[in-house]
Amino acid sequence: RAGRVEADLYSAELTLPVSLGPMHRVRIGLFLFFQALYALTSSGNPFRIPDEFEVYFQTEHLIDAGDLSVPQAREIQQPVIVDGKVVGTQSMFFGKAGVDGKPYAPYGPLAAVLAVPHHLVGRGLASIMGIERVPRSQGLAWVVFVGGITMLSTATAAALCIAGFHRAVIAMGTSDANALVLALLLGGASVLWPYGTSFFSEAFLAAAFTWAAALLIEARHATHPQTRIVLAGLLIVMAGLTKMTDRKSTRLNSSHVSESR
User: Fold this and answer.
1) Are 207 and 165 in contact (CB under 8 A)?
2) How far apart are CA 188 and CA 33, in angstroms?
3) pLDDT tens track for 183-205
4) Burial grade of 129 (CB within 10 A; 0-12, 13-18, 19 or more)
5) What's the pTM value of the predicted model, to 2 decimals?
6) Bridge partners of 79?
7) Which of 56, 173, 185, 229 has its CA 20 to 30 A from that of 129?
8) What DSSP string describes the chain?
9) Using CA atoms, how far apart are residues 94 and 105, in angstroms rounded to an integer?
């Protein structure tokens, strides 16, 4: 009977409105706190290395032209130094040309798509503030501003990871107080913080895998676990598409979905 009550509680938490569950309010509080913390401590600069700026260029070009090529990366030049002397310049583009001849970066592809909402917000704010978009050779104000807003997508992903982690440890039977402490430690004393303040894909992966784990843990006790298992599977697929180079982790988590079934 106790197991049946526990299963009913898990089912209710999945379906009831947010306002009716105290744990939902705790998770919303955790999300908002760490979203603000990571946003305030964000580097605000996605143009430090190709791992960051090429993902930004994917997002930008996806909105501009509808594809994930990065012709902007070829415009960034770096000096070629031989024997301590600058002998020329070369493009900082990192990737390969596709069969269509366009330059593509070896990142994503879903990371760029997940950053689109923040990118659109950045464009909207730039328009409201009168920041005009001009060719990069004439000024960088627009791209710097919009780029800084775009990279806050990883802050959102990292904050979602913490909320999902809190849900997972509660599902494992951890007390409310200890669950809150663990979530705070994850957000404030782990590698998640630097990933939430830079423009790498790891924050997206962490959010997807953590919520998938939470759903699979809950599925063990739920009266109707199918919905959670399907959602967990979709999150794992999404993680695989976010960073194709992390296929090993995706295969490992996929095996856990199969075991849950």
Assistant:
1) no
2) 11
3) 999 999 999 999 999 999 999 99
4) exposed
5) 0.83
6) 89
7) 56
8) -HHHHHHHHHHHHHHS-GGG-HHHHHHHHHHHHHHHHHHHT------SSHHHHHHHHHHHHHHHHSS---GGGGG-EEEEEETTEEEEEEE---SEE-TTS-EE-SSBSHHHHHTHHHHHHHHHHHHHTT-----GGG--HHHHHHHHHHTHHHHHHHHHHHHHHHHHHHHTT--HHHHHHHHHHHHHSSTHHHHHTS--THHHHHHHHHHHHHHHHHHTT-SSTHHHHHHHHHHHHHHHHHBGGGHHHHHHHHHHHHHH-
9) 6
- Side chain identity at residue 101, one-letter code: G
Locate 80 and state its tokens: 């070629």
Residue with tokens 């705070």: 184
Under-50 pLDDT residues of the chain: 1-9, 12, 15-20, 246-258, 260-261
